[in-house]
Structures are given as structure tokens and as C-alpha cells.
Recover the amino acids of this structure.
């Protein structure tokens, strides 16, 4: 039906197109890399080369020594880990209730959880900010943790419920017969078996809080309390002079985040589409 | 370092303790739901708890006690007459999450609604923060949303139109781009994993980094795009002759810039979802269609599209809501001092009117209006996607 | 060791009634099998005994004590599940000892019991493996082992062999029979496979549509089925049923169907009653018509012949009445032949047409 040569040409075109798309996707990362290597006196340049003339790692040293970059990372880490632990523990039990029990309100509850995804993020920031201000928690870790802790809860509950649903009920029944109660079966059987889903929920909570900018910007005004996105925004603000430092620090935070995301993406996607389809 | 670690441990301990207290409180109600003394004892405990909480927290002392009593009375009623001691475990498992959502989503929303009927702005915020008093102004704030600019020039109606345009253009480009890439990837036999990894990088990167980096590249003099455009006359002289050259991206065309950035950010998600859908379609359908004599385009229209719809519709819904609510891109590109209003959509204007212009009550009313719009549009969309469902069967 | 008693057990999910008025007494050390088609409520009944499901009405007694309000862990039972329900994150040893650890038995005792059970089931070499690394038959043994170590009063089996292939199933069937002989515990066993029921049971309880149809020893339910359902369900190939009526014939009685007329034992008391005649294919005797000889008994046409090794199934047509005969493979009959048919008179069972009950 098809001539022998046609598929080769077609394959070549396809690979060419995809390669171009890949280049577009990686382009900003390459540019960040290239700019971060520029020597201090040539930050501003119209050079497009990947490795600029006189490349050096000086900008990295400057970021670590002259800015609060490490402090910002630490702040982010403290806030993020705390919120993720809270978020996942709340979600793990709630999702179990939704997965295994039919009780008054179970259907409505699940629907409302999806409904919260519709609320514009900007809508919640204002009252949260005012509450936190009123409680004198601006510029504190606690204020940030409060603001972040339930933001990923609906999604985490959906993802965990989906996973619990795949665990056969007979395992819990066996545990009941073996001599524990329902909660014991959850703790001893279901939770250990759900480690993959729990870690994915944790990673999701983590990346959400780790990359968050808008809430942090209104709650944290003291640059010693900044999370890294705020710090980075500040560096990029004074565009021309600190572009090198911005690029260096941007690359430093991006690499681990990329790694974590690529590792967990398959799971996140299945969770996302699962939540969508069921609704 | 050690200090902040201790602080974190302190939160966690505090959180665990309060959850444990809450669970114990609920458990006792489930355990003794049929006892006569439950209500009186519970009310006594509620008064005690309300008083001690009022001693600790400086705000709204009387209302704390009243709400403690009201909560206790409601709980007793629900457990004694509606639940009758059943469903103990599921409700105990749900309680922490529900309390969290009530305190940090439901209460703030209610607070926002009440805020919209009062007048809280930069002048009154200090007074409110000290005393909790706010002047009531009725629906005035809602009227102002439609009559005065949320920012300094752009009007509500301009913002609304721009938002709809922004949502439509972005989602259309996301889906077409995602579909194109997914179809291409689906054809590839070798290197698919590598391509896929590279292609999801825009989604995987922290948005702040991606947007700020691209914003840098759109800078007029030293951004990569204008450098490339200015070299067009050297690389592709015939294109340059068409009059294509460097552009004042951020100054003159902020909306175009934001759209380009957001399209770049959003395509990978659609691509991944669609690719997943494509790979779940059995090869047999295509073989059968080929035997029936369907052309490649017919196969796409008659097999791929209908079969991918169950995956695509929720993804598009989700994508549209995200795009509608996307503050990040627009704020990060235009939010700094001297940034333009030319790219703002409803939600970014909301953020700026609250936190750049400090018009709190106005923003609350504005937020409610936005939510209403989003709600109406999504209901219409839901109906539309349901009705097309019946067409495909 | 304990008896199990069910008093008027009923269960409904919403408006659908899955069990109604089940009364049953399982003696101590008895091997009782619940058998019935899928959806007959047999698994639900077992789960009610286990305490995994709550009955809508009636009482469950184990060892003479009412256990309705006891949770499964306090009923001193052990259960083997259809999908084995081995905990995937524990080794075989941990799986088997889980219940003992929950009960806080001393380490030495636990180890002794586990190795004893593992010895009986010949799974000693598997103790350190995880369920994922086991074959279906091995998982089955571990699941049984997990039940044995608990030394329960009653063993409950929920279709334990249905996930195994035919050969393994036969092997495990024998194992379970041996195990019961060795342990002498009360066993309640659920299956949809009547062969399993016949081979394993001391007594069989046949359920259909949530009602107990008959309880009896295997020979009894096979030979004296209480109604057409039991008669049709037990035995393979299935019993033949022919609609007809009883007519008086002097002192005896004859059974008359449209194209069939038979002398039957008994008197003519049931004269005129509409009945169903049941006869097992083994009891339909077929002999080839000899050339030139007048036909004796009933003449039938052979429609289809199925050879099953030492036996063959003949699908016979007498007028428009169909009859299945299971005969020795050596009888030379081919499709299209005409044969002479006789029924073993003593094996004929008559059922009331309206109620289906045996007369």
C-alpha cells in the first residue's frame, strides 16, 4: 500500500518536529545555564552561545555567599515539610473513610472536595491573609503553614482514595478475623500497603508548597523569612545587574525539583485524570 | 537552624495534641450517645473550654463562648437523633480533615462574604486589626466593582472580556499543541522516553523560575527573542523583509507575552494526558478501520477523537479552570513596580487590587463576582459537555 | 472445637432479600459445605457467621453462645478467603504469625505453632518469602496455614479453590480432606462446585435464592433430592426432567408424558397429578436395536454423541422429549441411529410440578 521510501521520510520529519519542540521546551533552561556561567563583567550581553566566552562558576559562589539564598531554601524547606506532613496525615485518614464506608454525606463530601478546586486561588488569599494578620502570624513559619496546610488536601484525598480502592477488602477482613479492629486493620495493613500513594501525595503537597509564590508574597515581608521564590523574584527584579546570580540560583532550585517531578509524574498524572474522570 | 527546627516540632506537637483532643471529644460523644447526661455535661465542658480559649486568644471573647456552646449543642443533636451512635469510625477518620477545611476554606470564604458588605481598606485596616470594628456599607462594594477600575485604568468589563479571550485562546492552543505533540510522540518508536522527559520540562520546572526566566528573555535589548529577531536579516533575510523585527514585548505587548509564556507552560500537561489516552486505544480499532477503508484523517475523526473524549473533557475542564485562575504568570510578568495593566485578567487584577492597592473590601466583592462568573461558565460548560456526550453515545 | 447454630438468619440489602429464615445446626467436628449457584447467598451466610457482615435478623451461636454482637476477632474463628488475602507486605512467616502476635502470645509459642503448621502443610522452605513470590497453590497453603496456627474453634472457607487450575484444585481438595481428618475441627466450607461439596462434606447444605433447599449427607442429597432444584444442581451430568401426569393403571401407576409412557412404582394415589419425572443420565439404559427384532421398551433417535473417554453422553429424542443418557463408551451407537431405551425403575424420582418438591 505504501511505498518503501515514504515511511523513512515521514519518520525523519516526525523526529525533526519533535526535536524542535524539545529544543523549545529546554530553551529557557539552557539560557539560564548559559547566563549563569557568564563572567561578572559580561552579564549583560547579546551573546547567544550556550557556553559563553570566559565561562566561570563565579555567580554560584556569589549567590551562596552574598545573598540569603541558603536561608531562603531553609525557610522553604521548613514550611514545606511541615505542611506536607500535616496535609498527608489529614488526607490519609479522610481518604480511608471515603474509600471504605458509606455514611450520610459521603457522596456530597467527595463532590464538595472537587468543588473546592473551582475556587479561584486569589479568592482565598485575601481572607487568609487578613486572618493571619489579625492573629499576628505574618512573617512566621506558623502563619505560612496555616495558609498552606489544606490547600492540597482535596487532591491528596482523591489520589489516596483512588489507591485505597484498589486494595482488596479481604485483606482487612482477614485482619479482622486475625484479631484486630477496623482501625487496626487500617494502620497495620492498609497504610503500609499504601506507601507508594502516600509518598506521591507527599511529593504533590511538597511541590505545591515549594513552588508557591502568591501567598508567600503577602504573608512574608521580612527578607529573612523569605521562601526561595520570593528571594528569586527579588534578584530578578534588579534585572540587569543580578541576572547571573538569578540564573545560578534558579538552576540550583530547578534541578532537584525536576528530578522529583520526573520521578513521580506518572503517578501524579493518573491521579489528576482519575479525579477529573470521576467528577 | 536549631531554633526553627524546635519551632517546627512545637507546631507538630501542638497540631497532634489538638487533633487528639478533638478526636477524644468526638469519640466520647459516639461512645455515650444514648446517655442522658451527655448534653448537660457536654454543655458544661463547652463553657469551660470556651472560657479558657477566650482567656488565651485576644479576640471575640463572648463569641468564642457562644460558638463553643452552639457547637456542642449541634453535635449532641446530630449524634443523638441523626446518627444514633452509628458511623463512629468514618466520622472520626474524617474529623481532622473536615475541621481543617472548615477553618481554612469555609470560614475564610464566609469571612470574605461578610467583608464584601463592609469597608476595609488601607485607611481602616489598622483600626480593624486593633478593635475588630468595621463600618457596614451594604452592596456599595459590589456596585463599585462594576463602576470603578479594580486597578487604575482598566475597567471590569475589559477585564472580563480579556479573561474569556485569555481562557479560550490558551486552552485552544494547549489542546492543539498537546494533541499535535502527542500524535507525533505516538508515532515514534525509538527515543520516546527521552523525548517525553524533555517535553514535560515546562510543566516540571518551578513556575516561578520558568516565568521569570522567560520574562528575562522577552526583555527588549538583551532578551534572547529580540536578539534572534534582530539577527533575522542575517539568518533569514526574506523573513526580515516582511517587516518582522525586534518587538517591545513587555512594554507594548504584555498580553501577547503572557499568552506565549502560558502556552509554553501548559502544553506538556495536555500532551501527557492525551498521549495516555492515545496509548490506551487498542491498535485493533485502527486495523479494523483500515480494512474497512478509512483514511488516516477519517481514522482520527472516527476513532481517535471519540475514544479520547473521556480523557480529554476532564482535562480541558481542569485546564480551563486553571487558566481562568492563573495569577502566577501574569503577576510575575507584570506585577513589579511600573508593570503594565495591559495583560491583567480578572484574578490577577483581584490580587493586585488587594495587595498592591490595598482595597480589601472592594477585592472581596470583586472576588465574589469572579466566583459567580466562574460558576455560571462552568455550569454551562458542564451542560455542554454532557450534551455532546449523548451525541457520541 | 464447637458447634455452630443458625437461628432464622435473614439478610437484606435495601429492598433485596439475599437470605431468609436460614436455620441450621452444624455439629462439633463436622465438615459442612454450603453449595449453590452464584448469588444464592452462601458467601453472605459465611460472612455473617464470621461477623464480617451483620444479619438483618436471627441469631448466630458458636459453641452454644450467642455471638451476634461479637466482632470477628472475638468469635474464635479462622477464615480462608477466596483470593487468599495474604498480606503482601509481610513474609509467609509474618502472615501466619500475625494473628498470634495480635493476641500477644509469647515468641516461643508463636514460633512453635508456625513451624508445626508449616510442617503439616509442607511450606517450611517458603517461610521467608513474600506472597508475591509464591505460586497459586503455595499461597493457598499459606492461607490455610494462617488459619491453622490460630487453633480456632471453627474454620471458615470461602470458595478457597476457585482460583486454582483444575489439576491443583483436585490436589488441594484431597489435602483439605486430609487436614480435616487430622485436625478434627468444625469446618464450614462454601463452594459453587458440587463435586467439591460431594467429595469433602459430611453434610451438604444447598442454598438457592437465599433459602436453604436441603441439608443432608452427600448420598442423601444425591439419592433423595428434596426438590427439582437440588436434583438438578447435584450430580453431573444433570438429571433429566420430563413433564407429565400420573394415571392409574389397575393397582399400579403409569407416568404419561406427551410422547412417553412408563410404568412407575407406587400406587395410583396421586392419580391425575401433574408431576415432573426425574432420572439421572446414568440410569437411562440404552441398547442398540437389533435388525428384524421388534422394538422393546421405548424407541429413541440419537441426535448427538459426545465421547468422554470411558463414558459417552447420548442426546436422545423420543418424539419431542429430550433425554440424556450416560452410557459405557463401548456401546456402539452413532448419531442418527435408533435405539431402545429403558429407565432404571428404582432410580426414578417424581416431583410435584407446582412446588417442585419430591413426592
Amino acid at each position: 500500500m505504501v511505498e518503501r521510501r515514504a515511511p523513512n521520510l515521514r519518520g525523519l520529519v516526525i523526529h525533526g518536529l519533535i526535536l524542535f519542540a524539545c529544543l523549545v521546551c529546554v530553551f529557557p533552561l539552557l539560557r539560564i545555564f548559559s547566563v549563569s556561567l557568564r563572567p561578572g563583567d559580561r552579564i549583560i550581553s547579546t551573546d547567544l552561545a550556550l557556553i559563553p566566552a570566559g565561562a566561570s562558576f563565579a555567580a554560584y559562589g556569589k549567590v551562596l555567599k552574598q545573598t540569603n539564598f541558603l536561608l531562603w531554601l531553609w525557610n522553604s524547606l521548613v514550611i514545606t515539610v511541615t505542611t506536607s506532613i500535616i496535609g498527608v496525615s489529614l488526607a490519609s485518614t479522610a481518604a480511608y473513610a471515603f474509600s471504605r464506608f458509606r455514611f450520610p454525606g459521603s457522596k456530597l463530601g467527595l463532590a464538595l472536595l472537587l468543588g473546592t478546586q473551582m475556587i479561584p486561588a486569589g479568592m482565598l488569599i485575601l481572607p487568609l491573609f487578613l486572618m493571619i494578620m489579625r492573629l499576628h502570624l505574618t512573617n512566621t513559619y506558623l502563619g505560612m503553614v496555616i495558609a498552606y496546610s489544606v490547600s492540597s488536601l482535596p487532591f491528596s484525598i482523591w489520589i489516596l482514595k483512588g489507591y485505597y480502592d484498589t486494595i482488596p477488602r479481604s485483606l482487612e477482613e482477614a485482619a479482622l478475623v486475625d484479631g484486630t479492629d477496623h482501625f487496626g486493620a487500617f494502620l497495620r495493613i492498609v497504610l503500609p500497603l499504601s506507601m507508594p500513594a502516600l509518598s506521591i501525595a507527599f511529593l504533590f503537597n511538597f511541590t505545591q508548597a515549594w513552588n508557591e509564590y502568591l501567598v508567600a508574597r503577602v504573608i512574608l515581608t521580612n527578607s529573612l523569612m523569605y521562601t526561595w521564590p520570593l528571594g528569586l523574584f527579588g534578584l530578578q527584579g534588579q534585572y540587569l545587574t543580578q541576572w547571573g546570580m538569578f540564573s545560578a540560583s534558579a538552576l540550583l532550585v530547578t534541578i532537584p525539583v525536576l528530578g522529583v517531578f520526573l520521578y513521580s509524574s506518572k503517578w501524579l498524572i493518573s491521579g489528576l485524570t482519575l479525579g477529573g474522570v470521576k467528577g | 537552624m536549631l531554633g526553627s527546627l524546635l519551632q517546627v516540632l512545637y507546631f507538630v506537637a501542638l497540631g497532634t495534641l489538638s487533633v487528639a483532643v478533638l478526636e477524644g471529644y468526638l469519640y466520647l460523644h459516639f461512645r455515650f450517645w444514648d446517655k442522658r447526661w451527655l448534653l448537660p455535661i457536654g454543655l458544661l465542658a463547652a463553657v469551660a473550654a470556651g472560657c479558657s480559649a477566650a482567656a488565651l486568644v485576644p479576640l471575640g471573647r463572648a463569641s468564642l463562648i457562644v460558638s463553643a456552646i452552639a457547637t456542642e449543642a449541634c453535635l449532641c443533636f446530630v449524634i443523638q437523633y441523626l446518627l444514633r451512635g452509628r458511623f463512629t469510625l468514618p466520622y472520626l477518620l474524617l474529623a481532622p480533615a473536615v475541621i481543617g477545611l472548615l477553618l481554612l476554606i469555609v470560614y475564610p470564604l464566609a469571612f470574605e462574604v461578610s467583608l464584601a458588605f463592609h469597608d476595609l481598606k488601607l485607611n481602616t485596616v489598622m483600626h480593624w486589626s486593633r478593635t475588630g470594628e468595621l463600618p457596614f456599607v451594604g452592596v456599595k462594594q459590589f456596585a463599585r466593582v462594576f463602576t470603578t477600575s479594580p486597578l487604575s485604568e482598566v475597567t471590569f468589563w475589559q477585564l472580563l472580556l480579556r479573561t474569556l479571550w485569555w481562557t479560550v485562546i490558551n486552552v485552544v492552543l494547549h489542546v492543539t499543541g498537546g494533541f499535535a505533540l502527542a500524535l507525533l510522540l505516538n508515532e515514534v518508536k525509538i527515543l520516546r522516553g527521552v523525548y517525553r522527559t524533555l517535553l514535560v520540562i515546562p510543566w516540571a520546572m518551578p513556575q516561578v523560575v520558568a516565568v521569570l526566566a522567560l520574562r528575562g528573555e522577552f526583555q527588549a535589548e538583551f532578551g534572547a527573542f529580540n536578539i534572534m529577531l534582530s539577527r533575522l536579516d542575517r539568518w533569514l533575510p526574506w523573513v526580515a523583509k516582511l517587516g518582522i523585527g525586534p518587538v517591545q514585548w513587555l512594554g507594548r505587548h504584555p498580553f501577547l507575552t503572557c499568552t506565549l509564556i502560558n502556552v509554553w507552560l501548559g502544553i506538556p500537561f495536555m500532551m501527557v494526558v492525551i498521549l495516555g489516552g492515545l496509548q490506551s486505544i487498542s491498535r485493533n480499532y485502527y486495523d479494523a478501520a483500515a480494512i474497512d477503508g478509512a483514511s488516516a484523517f477519517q481514522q482520527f475523526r472516527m476513532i481517535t477523537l471519540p475514544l479520547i473524549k473521556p480523557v480529554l473533557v476532564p482535562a480541558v475542564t481542569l485546564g480551563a479552570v486553571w487558566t481562568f485562575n492563573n495569577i502566577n504568570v501574569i503577576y510575575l510578568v507584570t506585577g513589579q513596580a511600573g508593570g503594565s495593566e495591559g495583560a491583567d485578567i480578572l484574578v490577577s487584577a483581584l490580587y493586585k487590587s488587594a495587595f498592591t492597592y490595598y482595597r480589601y473590601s472592594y477585592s472581596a466583592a470583586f472576588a465574589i463576582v469572579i466566583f459567580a462568573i466562574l460558576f455560571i461558565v462552568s455550569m454551562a460548560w458542564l451542560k455542554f459537555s454532557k450534551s455532546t456526550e449523548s451525541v457520541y453515545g | 472445637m464447637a458447634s455452630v447454630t443458625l437461628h432464622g438468619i435473614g439478610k437484606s440489602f435495601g429492598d433485596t432479600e439475599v437470605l431468609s429464615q436460614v436455620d441450621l445446626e452444624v455439629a462439633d467436628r463436622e465438615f459442612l459445605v454450603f453449595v449453590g449457584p452464584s448469588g444464592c447467598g452462601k458467601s453472605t451466610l459465611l460472612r455473617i457467621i464470621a461477623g464480617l457482615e451483620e444479619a438483618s435478623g436471627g441469631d448466630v451461636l458458636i459453641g452454644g453462645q450467642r455471638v451476634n454482637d461479637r466482632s470477628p476477632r472475638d468469635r474464635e474463628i479462622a477464615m480462608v478467603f477466596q483470593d487468599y488475602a495474604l498480606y503482601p507486605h509481610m513474609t509467609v512467616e509474618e502472615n501466619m504469625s500475625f494473628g498470634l502476635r495480635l493476641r500477644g502470645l509469647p515468641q516461643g509459642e508463636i514460633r512453635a505453632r508456625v513451624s508445626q503448621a508449616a510442617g503439616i502443610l509442607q511450606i517450611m522452605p517458603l517461610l521467608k518469602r513474600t506472597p508475591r513470590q509464591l505460586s497459586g497453590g503455595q499461597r493457598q497453603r499459606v492461607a490455610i496455614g494462617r488459619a491453622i496456627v490460630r487453633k480456632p474453634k471453627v474454620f471458615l472457607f470461602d470458595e478457597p479453590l476457585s482460583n486454582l487450575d483444575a489439576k491443583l484444585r483436585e490436589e488441594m481438595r484431597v489435602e483439605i480432606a486430609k487436614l480435616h481428618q487430622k485436625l478434627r475441627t468444625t469446618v464450614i466450607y462454601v463452594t459453587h462446585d458440587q463435586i467439591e461439596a460431594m467429595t469433602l462434606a459430611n453434610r451438604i447444605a444447598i442454598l438457592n435464592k437465599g433459602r436453604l433447599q436441603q441439608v443432608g449427607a452427600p448420598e442423601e442429597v444425591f439419592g433423595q433430592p428434596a426438590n427439582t432444584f437440588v436434583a438438578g444442581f447435584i450430580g453431573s451430568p444433570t438429571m433429566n426432567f420430563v413433564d407429565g401426569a400420573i394415571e392409574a393403571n389397575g393397582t399400579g401407576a403409569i407416568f404419561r408424558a406427551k410422547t412417553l409412557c412408563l410404568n412407575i412404582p407406587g400406587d395410583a394415589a396421586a392419580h391425575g397429578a401433574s408431576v415432573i419425572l426425574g432420572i439421572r443420565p446414568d440410569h437411562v439404559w440404552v441398547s442398540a436395536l437389533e435388525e428384524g427384532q421388534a422394538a422393546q421398551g421405548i424407541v429413541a433417535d440419537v441426535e448427538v454423541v459426545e465421547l468422554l473417554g470411558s463414558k459417552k453422553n447420548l442426546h436422545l429424542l423420543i418424539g419431542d422429549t429430550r433425554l440424556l443418557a450416560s452410557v459405557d463408551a463401548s456401546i456402539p451407537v452413532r448419531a442418527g441411529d435408533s435405539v431402545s431405551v429403558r429407565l432404571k425403575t428404582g432410580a426414578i424420582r417424581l416431583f410435584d410440578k407446582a412446588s417442585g418438591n419430591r413426592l
Remarks:
- Chain B has a mean pLDDT of 85.
- Residues 2-109 of chain B form one domain.
